[in-house]
C-alpha cells in the first residue's frame, strides 16, 4: 500500500493519466481511503470544471470555408476588369480586320517565274534530276 | 502505424476536399476557442476571429504538413504561437481583458445552469467561476500554456513538451506549480464548493 508522500509525488501524473497502470491502480486504492489526498484531486477537478464553464459555442465552418474561397479567388478591382475588356476587344477587332483584308486579297500563289527560277537554281546544283522533277511538280501546281 | 483521424483529414484536405476542412473545424473549434479565451482573456468575436486564423493557416500549410507528429500536437502548436503573438502585440495582461467581459460570462453561466436552479447556488457558482478565471489569467505564461493545453487539448506531457520546447519532466513541473497556484488563489472558494457538494 502506498503512503501519502509517495502518492503526493505522483498525484499530478496520476490525475493526467501519465503513470504506469499498475502504479495507477495502487494510487487509486490509496485515494479511495485517504481523504486528504482525495481532497487535492477534488480541488483540481473543481478548478478544471470552472475553467471550462461559460465558454463560447462556436460555429465557424461557414466562415472558415468562405474565407478559404476568398483566398482562392482574389477580387479584381473594377477598373482593371474594364481595362482588360477594352484591351481584349481592341485586339480581337484588329485580328478581325486583318483576316477580312487577307480574305479580299485571295490566296497567295507563287508565279510561274518564281517557280522556274527556284527550280533552275536547284537544277544546276548537285542533284540536277531532283531539281527537274521539282520544277515539273511546281509548274503543274501553278497551272492548276 | 495507424494514422490518427486528424492525419487522415489532412490527407483529404491536401487533395482539395472541402468537406475535410468542415470536419476539422467541427471537431476542433471548441477546444481551440476555449484555449484562446482562457489564454488571452478575450471572448466571443475576438476568440472566434483568431480561431478562424488558425484554420486558415491549417489550410495554407496543407501540402507541407507531414504526419511526423500527431495532428493535435501540430494544430495546437499553431494555436499557441498565434496566442503568444497576439498577446505580445496587444501588450496587455490577460486579466485586464478578462475583467472587461465578466458580465457576459456570468450570463453564459446562468444560461448553462438552466432555469429552476437555486439563485444562491448560481451566485456562488458565478463567484467561484470568476475566481478561477482570474487565477488562470494570473498564471505565468508558460504555466498557463501547459495547464490549458492539458485541460482543453488533452495532450500528453510529451506532446505538450514538443509544443513548448521543453522536456516532459518540465511539463510535469509546470503543471504542479500551476495547480498549486490555482488552488492557493481560489482556496476558500474551491474548498467551500467541494464541501458543499459533499453535503448535498
Structure description:
The complex is a heterodimer of chains A (144) and B (200). Chain A is built from eight helices and no strands. The radius of gyration of chain A is 46 Å and the shape is rod-shaped. Chain B has eleven helices and no strands. Chain B starts with a helix and ends with a helix. Chain B has two domains: 92 residues, RNA polymerase sigma factor, region 2, helix turn helix motif (Rna Polymerase Sigma Factor, Chain: A, Orthogonal Bundle), CATH 1.10.1740; 83 residues, Arc Repressor Mutant, subunit A, CATH 1.10.10. Chain B is globular. Chain B is mainly α. Helix content of chain B is 80%, strand content 0%. At the A-B interface, helix 4 and helix 5 of A face helix 2, helix 3, helix 6, helix 7 and helix 8 of B.
How do the helices and strands line up, and which of them pair or pack?
The complex is a heterodimer of chains A (144) and B (200).
Chain A: H1 4-9, H2 11-15, H3 21-33, H4 35-51, H5 61-72, H6 78-105, H7 112-123, H8 128-143
Chain B: H1 5-14, H2 18-40, H3 44-60, H4 71-90, H5 94-100, H6 102-113, H7 119-138, H8 141-153, H9 157-164, H10 168-185, H11 187-199
Helix pairs in contact in B: 1-2, 2-3, 2-4, 2-8, 3-4, 4-9, 5-7, 6-7, 7-10, 8-10, 9-10
Amino acid at each position: 500500500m502506498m503512503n501519502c508522500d509517495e502518492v503526493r509525488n505522483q498525484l499530478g501524473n496520476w490525475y493526467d493519466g501519465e503513470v504506469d497502470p499498475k502504479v495507477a491502480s495502487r494510487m487509486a486504492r490509496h485515494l479511495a481511503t485517504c481523504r486528504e489526498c482525495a481532497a487535492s484531486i477534488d480541488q483540481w477537478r473543481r478548478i478544471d470544471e470552472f475553467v471550462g464553464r461559460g465558454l463560447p459555442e462556436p460555429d465557424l465552418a461557414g466562415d472558415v470555408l468562405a474565407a478559404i474561397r476568398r483566398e482562392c479567388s482574389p477580387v479584381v478591382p473594377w477598373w482593371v476588369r474594364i481595362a482588360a475588356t477594352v484591351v481584349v476587344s481592341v485586339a480581337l477587332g484588329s485580328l478581325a480586320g486583318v483576316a477580312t483584308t487577307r480574305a479580299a486579297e485571295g490566296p497567295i500563289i507563287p508565279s510561274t517565274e518564281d517557280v522556274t527560277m527556284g527550280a533552275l537554281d536547284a537544277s544546276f546544283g548537285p542533284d540536277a534530276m531532283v531539281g527537274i522533277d521539282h520544277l515539273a511538280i511546281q509548274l503543274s501546281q501553278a497551272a492548276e | 502505424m495507424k494514422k490518427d483521424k486528424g492525419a487522415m483529414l489532412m490527407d483529404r484536405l491536401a487533395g482539395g476536399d472541402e468537406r475535410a476542412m468542415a470536419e476539422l473545424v467541427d471537431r476542433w473549434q471548441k477546444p481551440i476557442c476555449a484555449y484562446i479565451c482562457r489564454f488571452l482573456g478575450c471572448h466571443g468575436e475576438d476568440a472566434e476571429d483568431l480561431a478562424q486564423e488558425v484554420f486558415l493557416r491549417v489550410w495554407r500549410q496543407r501540402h507541407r504538413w507531414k504526419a511526423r507528429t500527431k495532428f493535435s500536437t501540430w494544430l495546437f502548436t499553431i494555436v499557441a504561437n498565434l496566442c503568444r503573438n497576439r498577446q505580445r502585440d496587444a501588450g496587455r495582461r490577460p486579466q485586464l481583458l478578462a475583467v472587461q467581459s465578466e458580465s457576459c460570462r456570468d450570463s453564459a453561466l446562468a444560461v448553462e445552469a438552466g432555469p429552476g436552479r437555486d439563485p444562491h447556488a448560481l451566485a456562488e457558482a458565478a463567484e467561484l467561476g470568476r475566481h478561477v478565471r482570474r487565477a488562470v489569467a494570473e498564471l505565468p505564461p508558460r504555466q498557463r500554456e501547459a495547464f490549458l493545453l492539458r485541460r482543453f487539448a488533452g495532450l500528453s506531457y510529451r506532446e505538450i513538451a514538443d509544443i513548448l520546447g521543453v522536456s516532459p519532466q518540465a511539463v510535469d513541473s509546470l503543471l504542479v506549480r500551476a495547480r498549486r497556484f490555482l488552488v492557493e488563489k481560489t482556496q476558500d472558494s474551491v474548498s467551500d464548493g467541494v464541501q458543499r457538494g459533499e453535503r448535498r
